[in-house]
Amino acid sequence: MKKRFLGSVLYSAIKANLFKLFIQPITYISGAIFVLSINFAFFQLRGFFNIDTSSVEIRHFFNIIPYVSVLIIPAIAMVVQNRKLIDNDCLPVSFLCAVCSRIIASFIVYTVFLGLTIPSVIILNEFGDVDISKVLTGYLCMMLFGASICSFCCFIAANFKNSIVSFFVSVFVLFLISVCHLLPQYVKLPGFISSILTVLSVAWHTDAAVKGIIDTKDIFFFITLTIVFTWLSLIKTESTKKKRLVFYNFLVLCAGILTLAVSSLFYIRIDTTKEKQFSLSETGKETVKSAIAPLTITYYLSPELETLYPQVRDVKDYLNTLSAENKNISVLTVNPAELESKDRLEELGIISQQLQTSEENKTSYVSVYSSVLIEYGSNAATIPFLLSTASLEYDLLIRIRALTTGIVNTVLLYTGNNLSSDEYYPYLKPWLQSSGFICNEITTDELYEKKSIDNTVLLVTGSVEAKPSDAAAIENWVMKGGNVFFAVSPNVTDIQGSWESHHAGADSIIEMLDYWGIGIDSGICVDNNSCYRIRMYSSSGGDAKYIDYPYWINTTVTSNEILDQLKMPVFYWASSLYFAQHKELKVTPLLETSEDAWLSYPDDTDGEYITDPFLVSYLEPDKKSKGKYVLAASIEGEVNGCYDMRESPQVRLVVAGDQYFISTMIENSNSLYQNLDFLLSSVLWLNNNEELIPIKNKGNINTAPYKITTESDFAHKTNLIKALCFIIIPVLILSMYVFVDLIRRKSVIRKIKIYKSGNKKS
Questions:
Q1: Helix (H, G, I), strand (E, B), or coil: what is residue 579?
Q2: Any idea what DSSP says for residue 565?
Q3: Which bin fits 542, alpha (ψ -120 to 50), beta or left (φ > 0)?
Q4: Could you report the per-residue pLDDT of 111-160, keeping only the tens digit for each?
Q5: pTM > 0.90
Q6: b/e string for 499-517 if b means 16 or more Cβ within 10 A?
């Protein structure tokens, strides 16, 4: 009976506080500001309404909420704590019920405000895929965060009689907590103070949840804060003796600190993401178990990074998860600043990055490390620099495999267009080497001398200058069972000058491919529907002009094991592929154009293509050749020799009709990552390591608005967002106050009439 009575009293007290909140205009104004601020920061400030910068990454949406809540929750608490209003203090309730009812009422209103942001998340799914697991964990974290802030604001209000003063104090303290992890970037602080600021930072305790991770450390952090500040508020409310108040506060704070310390030592992290970005895959577990001797992983981490980037916590947890799979693996975290010599780090390939800091009105740069060293016996491998787990599992596994098995993965580079690899393909070698491959240039004479083809891929870039002897050497490699990536095209373009293109004439390598049943059309694919937009300046100067350049194609990635979750590469002046019927060959298209592409051929007068960006608008589509074209494909099977009348064993080939897609052209289209990643995925497949492709691509989450196919559709749906998020929902919130106030006035008038009629009868 007593518990039921207490429950009914608490329920009545909560209703009284909710009534107090819902009759005040500031509650509705706060709600409108809450929704407007979050939507404005996400959609407007982050460039969502620009199709080139639009992203449906829900993590950014949740990252905004704590900063807006710093202003809104204290405003709610100011209303519920205002002693000038009629409140539940006149009710016969205990101090505990009074404190809890205010916190719960504030939390309910905050949750309602939070719920009004759900339409924004729903409409995002109309543009691209929104991971539902991130949505659920994000909202759960925001609710726990809201509960802790509501209890904190109640505690502050208990210490200040003036609700306006408590509002500003709450806002100021919460703002400091929200940005305190950034303080070491501007002020030089001792290490233990930086660690304390990191523990207190809201950003650190919401980072995991907004990425789809349920971390018990963060859950206990917010729950502990909620309980601690609730009890501190209760002690302040009912205590009359100052000494007793200080003693009780000390006990509660000690209990809270002890709870947080224990929860940070014993915790569970659950990866709820669809791609399992932060979990070790089955392939990873098998690879890790292959270490039959002690394997040491040393994580060189600078404290400056640990305080500024919550993502490094994911790296540390991931390494610990790895070591838990095999008792032979040990993980050690080292502060590079404590090492006596940095020369050894440079010898191992561990590099530093420059971090900008500000101190005493001076801007300086400090060298920071976030590198992994893997040691197995007398061999070692490094991951030079990392800040997240985006490709960490792949980077670890390919190096652990090489160390435990002794197998060296190699890419041999043959350039057949007389373009210097260092000048025209400067990113190629560093990218492959950072991905666990040794990349060496080779001549066709040296190719003949290569006896071992295991774990080696031949990469052919360009072919217009190749001689029949070069083609014969490449074919000999294939006849031995070697796998090859061909990036070739029959046209030559001045990529560092005028972009003029012309047909190169006879090509030995392309003729060899054609003999194998893999044809490359002599024309260039043109695609007005799926092309890259470039910014050009006329020779006369003036403002920049944006041009949809149809010779640069945003390729369409087909569904296959090689390009799983890969972002769209950009191809430049590419030629289409066609295939002869060959029973021994399995052909799989990898990259394609849109349905509206067509083939362009050189002008009859001078033999050159019309490639000038300012003249491409005059190109007339060839309706006869209009359709979808294959720009890259994988081929698996046996091929018949063109120069050597033999039949090859089972081989793997990848052919791309573009010799420039991995050249310096990637600088002009911001496609460095996706183009080189397409090459890396293909090399892994050619090297028979296709099980590593989905692991490598785990971090390739497509956050682009790919569901929008036309600019008119994009404009229509963005207008819908503007109307819903910036007009309809805020107006609906404010109109609710008008509705509530109208009902309240009618109720008061009715009570007055009843009262007057009762007096007349008496």
A1: strand
A2: T
A3: left
A4: 999 999 999 999 988 888 888 999 999 999 999 999 999 999 988 988 88
A5: no
A6: bebbbbeebbbbbbbebbb
